[in-house]
Q: What sequence folds into this?
């Protein structure tokens, strides 16, 4: 499974960004896709995940601000990020769980200026 992420960038606090991640390859067993972030000097942590049937899980820090969605026909997962805060600044990684195997995309940098 290959994951290609798009959409990072620089935004002012209070602004919005939308991340996209397209999956390709042996995707027939992918059942969960999502996003994780890693801030400088910190460990990677969950942002949001979504299952094949649309169940979602969010980190408490993003509830009410971020929305994860998935287009199964396009094998793409999206992360709509609203009301961004400087503490959201991090490298965001797309993730896919296929059976018992974990796949990661290259990170995309999101920088939120105050």
A:
């Amino acid at each position: 499974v290959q994951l290609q992420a798009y959409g990072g960038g620089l935004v002012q606090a209070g602004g919005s960004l939308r991340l996209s991640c397209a999956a390709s390859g042996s995707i027939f067993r992918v059942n969960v896709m999502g996003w994780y972030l890693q801030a400088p000097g910190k460990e990677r942590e969950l942002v949001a995940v979504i299952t094949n049937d649309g169940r979602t899980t969010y980190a408490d820090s993003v509830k009410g601000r971020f929305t994860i969605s998935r287009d199964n026909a396009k094998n793409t997962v999206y992360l709509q990020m609203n009301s961004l805060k400087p503490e959201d600044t991090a490298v965001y990684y797309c993730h896919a769980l296929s059976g018992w195997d974990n796949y990661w995309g290259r990170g995309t940098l999101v920088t939120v200026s105050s």
About this structure: The CA atoms of residues 14 and 83 lie 4 Å apart. The mean pLDDT is 95. The two ends are 37 Å apart (CA to CA).
